[in-house]
Write a structure and sequence with these properties.
Largest sheet: 5 strands, mixed
Strand content: 35-45%
Distance between the termini: 72 Å
Mean pLDDT: 84
Shape: globular
CATH architecture of the largest domain: Sandwich
Structural class: mainly beta
Oligomer: single chain
Order of helices and strands: HEEEEEEEEEEEEEEEEEEEEEE
Helix content: under 10%
Length: about 280
């Protein structure tokens, strides 16, 4: 009897290990690899779960599973499209990975979510949520690479930046940049209204080629802050965006601007995406 019990326990442990490894490789409902020229991935699963999606970021909606529904490996920097093609009800989406946290509710057809982002290489966890209640809806998710959209234009700037640079102006009306927030320097060193902690080196350098009104939006899974310094002075923000994310809208004249993405709490670091747009 003891031998039979031991065999049963070993078998159960093996099943658990295989299940855990399967989740790590592909999520609860499978995953795959996205590379230039690879065909779209079509995946199916069931939405929802016990976890509030807003725990991943203030602008996330609905309820999601504790474990990712899918795990997608992106091989090279490229734009990737995640879209729920059909579902049994109102669904939402959360995509988490090296480039940050991206959430959506109804950008797709009907009540279906869609996320399109320029992503760095790495592993991305995808959660398909249910907008309201504890309903569980069957869905089909398509993930495809979109190689036609280039990343923001990098510019050589003396002194450099931690996570890259971009140009915005006529011909370059939007930029998406990614990095890690925080640092050892109090942001108030740039002005009394600035909050959080930043790195002494700017997170990004932005070159503006024509006068325009620009909005800086940060998306991150934690409480971040923002400092933009250049011609015309320094502007700071803490929670002007969705949730605990900062947002700054200001008129920019041609010139070079330093952008610092901070963390509100000392020692905190968060992956983020910074979107710069008119």
């Amino acid at each position: 009897m003891q031998l039979r019990t031991a065999i049963t326990l070993v078998a159960a442990l093996c099943v658990a290990l295989v299940s855990s490894e399967s989740w790590a490789q592909g999520g609860t409902y499978g995953g795959g690899v996205i590379a230039p020229g690879s065909p779209p991935l079509t995946l199916a699963g069931t939405s929802g779960g016990p976890r509030q999606a807003r725990s991943m970021g203030g602008n996330c909606r609905g309820t999601i599973a504790v474990r990712p529904d899918h795990v997608i490996n992106v091989v090279t920097p490229m734009q990737v499209r995640f879209e729920v093609l059909n579902a049994g009800g109102d669904t939402t989406m959360v995509v988490v990975g090296p480039s940050g946290v991206f959430c959506d509710d109804d950008s797709g057809n009907g009540l279906n979510p869609r996320v399109i982002q320029q992503l760095m290489p790495g592993q991305y966890q995808v959660y398909i949520g249910t907008y309201a209640g504890r309903n569980l809806y069957p869905y089909t998710l398509q993930v495809s690479g979109m190689g036609g959209a280039p990343p923001p234009v990098a510019v050589p700037v003396p002194g450099g930046a931690l996570f890259g640079a971009a140009v915005i102006g006529i011909g370059h009306m939007m930029a998406n940049l990614s990095g890690t927030s925080g640092g050892p320097v109090p942001a108030r060193s740039h002005g009394g209204s600035c909050r959080g902690y930043i790195n002494p080196m700017p997170s990004h350098i932005l070159t503006v080629t024509s006068p325009m009104v620009v909005t800086f939006d940060v998306s991150a899974p934690g409480d971040t802050t923002l400092v933009v310094s250049g011609p015309g002075g320094t502007t700071c923000n803490d929670d002007g965006g969705n949730g605990f994310n900062p947002r700054i809208t200001r008129t920019l004249t041609p010139g070079t601007y330093q952008i610092f993405v901070g963390s509100y709490g000392r020692g905190a670091v968060y992956p983020y995406t910074l979107t710069i747009h008119p």
